[in-house]
Write a structure and sequence with these properties.
Blueprint (H helix, E strand, L loop, with lengths): L10 E2 L5 E2 L4 H10 L12 H18 L1 H13 L5 H13 L2 H11 L5 H11 L6 H13 L2 H6 L9 H8 L6 H12 L5 H13 L3 H8 L3 H7 L5 H6 L1 H6 L6 H12 L10 H14 L3 H14 L9 E6 L16 H16 L1 E6 L3 E3 L8 H11 L6 H8 L7 E6 L8 H9 L5 E6 L14 E4 L8 H5 L6 H9 L15
Parallel strand pairs: 3-4, 3-6, 6-7, 7-8
Antiparallel strand pairs: 1-2, 4-5
């Protein structure tokens, strides 16, 4: 995505190839969209990444608070991310106009602990928590249901609901809120009626975590917890069900088939790579065929529709750096995320799909093949250096279409821009999209001449159709205005944070 003005200077990528700088807005977008902000990455330590984010966010918020507000909303509602958007809200309350910050907070704080992340980030920067932020948090607390206040009472990043209540002093909108507020602040010293209400609310909403905490990790406990599992919690715990022998039970298989076959599974918000991770793990561990079939069906039902016309040449970076985990708490890698997006795009548009590292990795399957088979082939063949320029020189001449899509971290060892620029210059109808997976600083291509998006959500591929219209400013608004606002009790499960 092009931004002005460019900052002309000579750069090299981490791999030593020709590099290009990003504008502050462009660099911030790539960083937020490609980061879970958890742990060191291949080319950048966590502290370096967080410091780069803080400087960029401060600069861009002071220059263009409307862009930061739009980016925070887009990253939260469309890409399903949490930590980056919550931190951007803190920057808006510190640097930006209050009305912009307040409106952005309402669009970003969808889950019951995201206002706590904003408070924690504000304090971590050494900033005073201003009255406007306190009022926004108080409004958020009053808007949450009593059950959600209890569900997210522990919070994260060093801030709890108790801390937010003491700091922001919300005026409870009703008796239930008042009693829950009292219990959160006073605990065992709360009045008996407050303790009784909280006990009732907790019993009314049993969760799989509570069952296992009470009974331990046993087959009987998991069988009891099973009806309470959904979304990412269900997908992640299939391994536990397998370990306790439950996946072989016909009754459990039938329940999973119904649960994963429900059309509502698409609203769980899982990324394609999360479904594929569970599917590939199941094949490795020997899940029963009925369970693997249910996972495959859920993956297919969750894929977004892509309104793209014409075939695509899709190049997926499977070099060594791409096998680094997305975050410190994730088993998924950038290579898995890139391969899943590449396979999805190939499925939607046809054309050609290749992996690349120091060589070209052809795909021996057509676009109708199972996504898991495509992804497994690419991942098993990769792991070498990053020679994108060579991959472009070998694949572009034989491609008859007009669209090239490259999924990479842009840290290449050779000159990738020259062959791409030459190909684009031969026909004005040709387009090139770069999906930056990791948000590192130096780019393999300049911001002008190619369109660029970032992240690892299947939903970002929908933007390619808009980007082909060469309207880099409006597509965020278009996607944000159409995004679904899920409440905190829906449990935004997509992001691994």
């Amino acid at each position: 995505m092009p931004f002005d003005p460019e900052r002309p200077r000579v750069l090299h990528t981490h791999q030593g190839g020709r590099g290009f700088p990003a504008s502050p807005q462009g660099e911030l977008l790539l960083l937020v969209a490609g980061s879970l902000f958890s742990g060191d990455l291949f080319y950048e330590r966590a502290a370096e990444r967080e410091a780069r984010f803080a400087l960029l966010a401060a600069e861009v918020t002071q220059q263009d608070p409307e862009f930061v507000a739009l980016l925070a909303t887009y990253a939260r509602q469309v890409l399903g991310l949490r930590s980056g958007p919550s931190a951007l809200v803190a920057h808006l309350f510190w640097w930006g106009p209050v009305e912009v910050a307040r409106g952005t907070a309402q669009r970003v704080w969808l889950r019951g602990d995201e206002h706590l992340e904003t408070l924690a980030y504000t304090r971590a920067q050494g900033w005073r928590i201003r009255k406007a932020l306190k009022r926004a948090v108080a409004q958020r607390l009053n808007a949450m249901s009593p059950q959600a206040l209890l569900k997210y009472r522990q919070g994260g990043r060093g801030f709890r609901q108790r801390d937010a209540l003491i700091l922001c002093h919300p005026k409870a909108p009703d008796r239930e809120h008042a009693l829950v507020y009292e219990w959160l602040v006073r605990g065992r010293k709360a009045r008996p009626e407050a303790r009784a209400l909280v006990e009732t609310l907790l019993v009314e909403r049993p969760t799989w975590e509570r069952i296992l905490s009470r009974k331990g990790s046993t087959p009987e406990a998991w069988r009891e917890a099973l009806p309470h599992l959904s979304g990412l919690a269900l997908v992640r715990n299939l391994n536990n069900l397998h370990r306790h022998g439950l996946l072989g039970d016909p009754g459990v298989q039938g329940w999973l088939a119904r649960r994963l076959g429900d059309p509502g599974v698409a609203r769980w918000g899982l990324f394609p790579y999360q479904w594929l991770q569970a599917l590939l793990q199941g094949e490795e561990l020997g899940y029963p065929p009925a369970v693997l079939s249910a996972l495959e069906g859920a993956l297919e039902a969750s894929l977004p529709s892509l309104p793209l016309q014409g075939e695509s040449l899709v190049l997926v970076d499977v070099s060594g750096s791409m096998y680094h985990p997305l975050s410190a708490r994730s088993q998924a890698t950038y290579a898995l995320a890139a391969a899943s997006l590449g396979a999805l795009l190939y499925r939607a548009t046809g054309g050609q799909l290749y992996g690349f590292d120091s060589r070209i990795i052809p795909l021996p399957y057509g676009p109708d093949a199972p996504l898991g088979r495509m992804v497994r082939h690419l991942l098993e063949a990769g792991g070498g250096g990053t020679h994108l320029g060579e991959a472009l020189r070998k694949t572009l001449p034989g491609f008859p279409g007009r669209r090239v899509v490259i999924l990479t971290d842009e840290q290449v060892a050779d000159d990738a821009y020259t062959p791409l620029r030459r190909w684009l210059g031969e026909d004005p109808s040709r387009v090139a999209h770069v999906v930056n997976m990791a948000g590192y600083g130096p780019l393999a291509f300049p911001e002008r001449g190619v369109s660029r998006v970032a992240g690892f959500s299947g939903r970002l591929l929908e933007l390619l159709a808009v980007l082909e219209a060469q309207d880099p400013a409006a597509h965020l608004r278009a996607r944000v205005s159409g995004a679904s606002l899920a409440g905190e009790e829906e449990g935004e499960e997509g992001e691994e944070e």
